[in-house]
Amino acid sequence: MKKTSEKRVIKNMKMKIIVIILFLFIGTVAYSKPMNIGFTVGLAVPNDDISQFYHYVRDSLKVAPDSTRVGDYLLDNATSVGYILGIKGRIELTNRFDLALGIGLARFNDAQYSIVPAVGSLSLDTSFAKIQSTTNIVPISAGINAYLLRSFINLYVIGDVTYNYISYSYDIVLKNKPGIPITNSTSDSRLGYSFGAGLDFDLSLFKINLETKFNAANIIGRVGDEKQKNYGTITVGIIF
User: Fold this and answer.
1) Are residues 182 and 57 in contact, defined by beta-carbon separation less than 8 angstroms?
2) What is the pLDDT of residues 162-187, one digit of tens each?
3) Domains along the chain?
4) CA angle, residues 86, 193, 8, in degrees to nearest 5
5) What is the pTM of this model?
6) Could you read off the pLDDT of 29-55 as tens digits, one per residue?
7) Alpha-carbon dihedral angle through residues 107, 198, 36, 90, given to the nearest 10 degrees
């Protein structure tokens, strides 16, 4: 346990050093060139592993990965569409390339888990407990916008490296005690990436921005059997 904890601390230190070096470089570039600032809002569509509660319960009881049965009980989970808010900055490097910076908040707050009796135990319409799991991901990103078209309509593709702060919280309602241990997780910091495409409509005073991206939040720094957390985003914004 101690060795695992030490390895986790070392990984987090390495990631923080990488992020500090990256942003020192970005700061040097940004100091010498003007930056456009924008604000975005949109939908975030998660994969099934954004919330870790389901896996914690299953793994703590040594249930097979392909099974939802825990003794005489079944775990039923579903992760809903969330939302994302963001602030982005752009620094023009050339006519075809911009340095793209950003920070955001992706929130998935409607992942519900019903603990119900398995077949042969009690009635399937009886729920022993409901757990609502909230996952927050704060991505800090740096990447490149590569423009395919730049006029009144700007068409571009984007690729980012991201530093993600991930936190979880659980709201638990028990009707009685089904004997399933509930383990809260701690906050994590992970390196990831994102890529996608976007459109700007240049209205002279400001630009209307539409963007869609695929985001992988924890490619580097995962511990043990931690699942990969991916989500897609569709955003609309305004850039000054």
Assistant:
1) yes
2) 999 998 877 766 665 555 555 556 68
3) 2-50+82-110+134-171+187-239 (2.40.160.20)
4) 105
5) 0.76
6) 556 678 899 999 999 999 878 876 656
7) 90
